[in-house]
Amino acid sequence: MGSASRSHPPRSVLIFGALIGIQLLFGSGYVVSKVMVGAFPPMVWASLRITISAILMLSIALASGRPSPRGWKTFFKPLIGLSLLGVVINQSSFLVGLKFTTPTNSAILNTLIPIFTLLLVILRRVESMSWQRMIGFMLALCGVLSIRHIEDFHFANQTVIGDLLTILNCLSFACFLVFGKTFMEKHDNVWTTAWLFIYGSVGITALAIPDYLHFQMPQMTATLWFCAAFAVLGTTLLTYFLNFWALANVRSSSVALYIYLQPVVASAVSYIFLSEQVTLRTVLSAGLIFLGMIFGRAKESLRS
Predict the structure, then answer these.
(1) Where are the alpha helices (DSSP H) in the chain?
(2) Are the C-beta atoms of 144 and 111 separated by less than 8 Å?
(3) CB under 8 A, 24+ apart: contacts of 195-198
(4) How far apart are the C-alpha atoms of 256 and 176, rounded to whole Å?
(5) Average pLDDT, stretch 102-128?
(6) Which of 43, 132, 133, 173 stands the most exposed, by the fewest C-beta atoms within 10 Å?
(7) How many CB atoms lie within 10 A of CB 209?
(8) Sign of the C-alpha dihedral computed for residues 8, 11, 17 and 23 taken in this order
(9) Which residues contact 163 (CB under 8 A, 6 or more apart)?
(10) Is pTM beyond 0.85 here?
């Protein structure tokens, strides 16, 4: 998987599977993250998660025998900006924002990621807009807002800082999807993921220093160990790698559109593991999301 295989592009079914897999992992990650931030300060856990992922991904890159990346201007320098957008600003603004706003506000505001992505690619004239795609995005957005209980959303003086940080998180990740696509098309995905984590771990750890000064390691139960392993291997290492690989083979807006599947996955996981009730509203909302996905992908080549 990498730029070297551009003459033999992957099958559409593989790209589709990767995009679905990303949402399955991220959707499951909501439950896992809830467990982890209950035991660790959010920024400390973000730092540990990204740092461990960086070590693992660098080990994989070295063991794979792939040629090491070269070129400060063409590889290492651009990755600094991409790591700021896709890891440091994205992760820190989301976690800190969640601390100062309500979970409902955070969940609803995160639906801005596909909208911001779509606006950016249109403004940059990277992608064109069709009525099918517009209908698809609007249907999926309505489904997500419904499943997230839009009627419970409210701005207040107590949440304004958290809401603004959450919006910053959305804009940051949208910029990463749009501006990172060309880079992902040109460079090896394994080394790109490794160095993105390396840069990101430095940035997030620097931001987490105040929390580290007062941090005490919690007692690690079997549940915490499982959640930690799943968060590192599944919702961090594997999802970022699959995201980069998909981004090199599909439109930025299409990668963003699939994000709307995450609340459906989260609801399913909550039903299976937390015994939360599935309501008619959840079913209808999921139907809108899937219908939006169909319209959003209609008559569109999977590759950009």
Answers:
(1) 12-39, 42-64, 77-83, 90-99, 103-109, 112-123, 131-147, 160-186, 189-212, 222-232, 239-247, 252-257, 262-274, 280-297
(2) yes
(3) 195/69, 195/75, 195/76, 195/79, 195/83, 196/79, 196/82, 196/83, 196/86, 196/87, 196/240, 196/244, 197/50, 197/53, 197/54, 197/57, 197/58, 197/87, 197/237, 197/240, 198/54, 198/58
(4) 11
(5) 78
(6) 132
(7) 11
(8) positive
(9) 97, 101, 105, 109, 155
(10) no
Dist. CA 93–CA 110, nearest whole Å: 12
One-letter amino acid of 195: W
CA dist 73 and 77 (Å) reads: 5
For the chain, report the end-to-end CA distance as a whole number of angstroms.
17
Q: What is the pLDDT of residues 19-51, one digit of tens each?
A: 888 888 877 776 787 788 888 888 999 899 999
